[in-house]
Specification:
490 residues; 18 strands; globular; binds 6-O-phosphono-beta-D-fructofuranose; single chain; six-stranded parallel β-sheet
Length: 490
Amino acid sequence: MAERRKLIVVSNRGPVSFGCAPNGERVARRGGGGLVTALRSLVAHHDVTWIASAMTEEDRVVATESEHEPVAETARDGSAYRLRLIAHDDQAYDWFYNVVANPMLWFLQHYMWGLTESPDIDLGLHNAWFGGYLPVNESFAEAVVAELDRQPGAAVFFHDYHLYLAPKLVRDRRPDALTTHFMHIPWAQSDYWHVLPRHLRESVHEGLLANDVVGFHTQRWSRNFLRACEEILGADVDVAEGVVTHGDRTTLVTAHPISVDPEEFDDLSGDARVLEEEKAIRRRRPEHLVLRVDRTDPSKNVVRGFRAFGIYLDQHPEMHGRVTMLALLDPSRQDIPEYTEYLGAIQRESRAVNDRFQFEGWLPIDLQIADNFAQSVAAYKQYDVLLVNSVFDGMNLVSKEAPLVNERDGVLVLSENAGSHEELGEWALTINAFDVYGQAQAIDRALTMEAGERRRRAEAIAAHVRAHDLQAWLDAQLADLDRVSARVSA
Ligand code: F6P
């Protein structure tokens, strides 16, 4: 095991969020999502202070009670860490999260506009940037500087697209700080970044280059970033070495695919709640089950997935009554109009397919909109086909989690634009995210694949994920830190 280090982890969503029970008692809810889950084992092995936004009213009470100092917390496995919650101004946070980070940056980085009609970079966006994104990043930077003063020599781990400006704000005040920034979403090619006015796209890239290391899940995203640094900032870029020199600073750009903890999924597959959910799925399932598990995010491409299933059913009347698409969708970002509208589109499309094909006792699409992780794991065990057709996706952890516990040699149908395709593509059926006809054909091919081939592919994916697990990803981050600190002190 690597030496214990002092780490300051910085992310918008924290590992825990507080609520208030009806009796007034404070209750802690462990944060979900890929990022938070992935970083859990850092807490177990290192001396971690986690800086995050206060998300709930009770989070704000915790932040105020502690006078904005870190509080002692305990992770699910009993490990101790410190949590510093930042209570942002309500208006600033709304602009930061609901106008700039999502949808503007999220949509940009997942190529989600056609550009003829949207987006408009209007006064609202400018105000949201300078009155929301910037001040929230300033508050994060201030908290990081305070923590660095408390723990000189600690390394700072920034995460994701919420925090592009914070690293430079820290660097200006603590030039010697050791900082890394990991990006959990794709990096768009530089032309698409031209949706943002020059000063904004430059400040995003300059903000990131204030770090010693910038990490991505795949070579594809890191290459896009390197080229964008060259084209947007005129930085000096060595693509082969992954090194960017801009002004007097050098940044190492790396690609390490995030993964999951296989042991956790081994345990989960025997968990009582999962077994209960599995019983219910077995009772309802027809002969074949096509599964998708996603947040209701437009980047996940749920509507096209339903259309593709409709095309498949149209072409295969012999399968009516014998196959169901189970869609387990976690409602996401419902304060953002684009997301509420998309949830409506999901419901409309599933209704359209069901109205067209259903008959007594058979529902072609079983749409469940809920946050129910036990049900997702149960469905992971039961699928024959797992459909991941993301428009673009930084990684897509479902495509790594589900094959670990699947018991039916299920076939992975995987978008070529999901980060996980770089690793798993050779054993998956590759699809184009926009080609609904091709997706229908892939569903057919997966459902009719010969048993030996199904098994060979399913086993290869599970073996790959076991060999390239979450710990490997975390170790790679720490090795990057060692690489740059050796360079700085040389
Ligand atoms: O993919 C980026 C990410 O931050 C994930 O870590 C997380 O699961 C997801 O987006 C959820 O985002 P939010 O915090 O907006 O709910």
